[in-house]
């Protein structure tokens, strides 16, 4: 059997050092050291980020069983990868229409993790629209974790979009997903890694 690879995809203005990414890496290191964990620092621009993720999957898909996990904008990217490669994916408070949400963020941005400054413009919004997955092609291998207290995204958008997938909706919480440490073991089981 092929070895396992977990690709964790961070969200907008985030990094591999985010709490959920760190919790997934820590869980695997302590309980499943057989799983290779990749948490790439994505470029700030959607087209470049999508290309990097595509390259990562294509580089390893013949040698590894790959599972995806992603939060917020990372969940949006994981949905796109799931549609193209039929890889199992767990999405945590995923962005459903980031091309609408990020219009409010056009202009200069500073990533609080990397301290990198960059300019978000209309081209980047269009790039997000290009990779939008309107209809899920592999809903059986998608698990979506939502908290209704998400202050950044309306969880009902994800509830509607992913209604044919596996859904877990918790009352309260926030965009960071409160008490996420309850989930790494179950995420690895769902991804069959």
From TrEMBL:
Coiled coil: none
Source organism, top-level taxon: Bacteria
Alphabetized InterPro entries for the sequence: AB_hydrolase_fold, UPF0227/Esterase_YqiA
Name of the protein: Esterase YqiA
Organism: Vibrio palustris
């Amino acid at each position: 059997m092929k070895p396992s690879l977990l690709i964790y995809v961070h969200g907008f203005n985030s990094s591999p050092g985010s709490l959920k990414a760190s919790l997934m890496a820590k869980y695997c290191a302590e309980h499943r050291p057989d799983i290779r964990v990749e948490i790439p620092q994505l470029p700030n621009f959607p087209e470049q980020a999508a290309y990097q993720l595509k390259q990562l999957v294509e580089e390893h898909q013949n040698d590894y069983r790959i599972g995806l996990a992603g939060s917020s904008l990372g969940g949006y990217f994981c949905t796109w990868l799931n549609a193209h490669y039929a890889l199992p994916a767990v999405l945590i408070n995923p962005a459903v229409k980031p091309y609408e949400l990020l219009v409010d963020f056009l202009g200069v941005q500073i990533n609080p993790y990397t301290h990198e400054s960059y300019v978000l413009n209309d081209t980047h919004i269009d790039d997000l629209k290009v990779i939008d997955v309107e209809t899920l092609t592999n809903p059986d291998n998608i698990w979506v974790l939502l908290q209704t207290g998400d202050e950044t995204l309306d969880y009902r958008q994800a509830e509607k979009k992913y209604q044919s997938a596996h859904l877990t909706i918790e009352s309260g919480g926030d965009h960071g997903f409160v008490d996420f440490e309850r989930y790494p073991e179950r995420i690895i089981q769902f991804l069959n890694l």
